[in-house]
Design brief:
The protein is built from seven helices and nine strands, in the order βββββαααβββαβααα. By secondary structure, the chain is of the alpha+beta class. The protein folds into two domains: 2-76, OB fold (Dihydrolipoamide Acetyltransferase, E2P) (Beta Barrel), CATH 2.40.50; 79-147 and 188-245, de novo design (two linked rop proteins) (Up-down Bundle). The radius of gyration is 20 Å and the shape is elongated. The chain binds zinc ion.
Length: 246
């Protein structure tokens, strides 16, 4: 069986000089692992289109559940990303998140779009890394069954207080008065960050990156998003640890 698909290469494993195994995030088929030519293969002209973080059109042959890349042509290689270790490591973290959270054999149109947009904005410096990281984290979780409930305070439903407390396990918020009354302590977030989180999870895809925060609030958003993500992934990510070490 043969198929043609667009996909973002989210992982590249070297098995020998003539073969590699790539993991591709595709629109219609979720994640696909495929054998791909290595640098010394006769088909090595396809190597540049099947490297990590390339978005390419791929022609795949399948036999007994094993895929092979027959041909590949690049759509976007995000060239400028590759000269900046901070950008590159954050993009690799996005790929690791996609690999961890992508449902098997499922439609991944929005997930792929989210990653492609975030990587493009990162490459072109159209939004800060902190904002892009938080947006990807919260939206990936929302898409894969971990949608937090941020309509308002979980106890009194108020949604216009200056301060909220976010519970990363339950994915709910409390206003200051209700948190004091119940004696629970979540992560303290400002109203601006509460609104940004609501925006990321509830708005239409086209608008998810269109919000503004001060640099300090962006860092607050980044921290709360990461805590929520790690609480639900129940593991750490090597690419995230590397990003923080820079
Ligand atoms: Zn309340």
């Amino acid at each position: 069986m043969r198929m043609t698909t667009d996909g973002l290469i989210v992982r590249e494993q070297f098995t020998g000089e003539s073969t590699r195994i790539i993991t591709v995030l595709t629109r219609e088929h979720g994640l696909i692992r495929a054998f791909s030519p290595g640098a010394r293969s006769l088909k090595s002209k396809y190597v540049s289109s099947t490297q990590l973080l390339c978005f390419s059109k791929l022609s795949l042959a399948e036999s007994k559940g094993i895929y092979r890349v027959e041909s590949a042509s690049p759509i976007d290689v995000f060239f400028e990303l590759r000269n900046d270790v901070v950008k590159l490591s954050l993009a690799q973290y996005f790929c690791e998140l996609a690999m961890f959270f992508t449902p098997e054999e499922d439609d991944c149109t929005e997930l792929l779009r989210l990653l492609l947009n975030a990587i493009k904005f990162l490459e072109k410096e159209m939004h800060s890394p902190a904002k892009l990281k938080a947006t990807v984290e919260l939206r990936i979780l929302s898409l894969t069954g971990y949608l937090p409930d941020l309509v308002g305070c979980r106890d009194c439903a108020n949604f216009s207080q200056d301060t909220y407390y976010f519970d990363p396990i339950a994915g709910t918020v409390q206003c200051e008065a209700c948190a004091q009354l119940s004696g629970t302590a979540g992560i303290r977030i400002s109203y601006a960050v509460f609104c940004a989180m609501r925006h990321i999870i509830y708005s239409e895809f086209q608008k998810i990156f269109s919000f503004k925060l001060s640099p300090a609030a962006e860092l607050e958003l980044e921290q709360v998003s990461e805590e929520y993500l790690l609480a639900h992934a129940e593991r750490n990510f090597t690419t995230l640890q590397f990003y923080h070490s820079l």
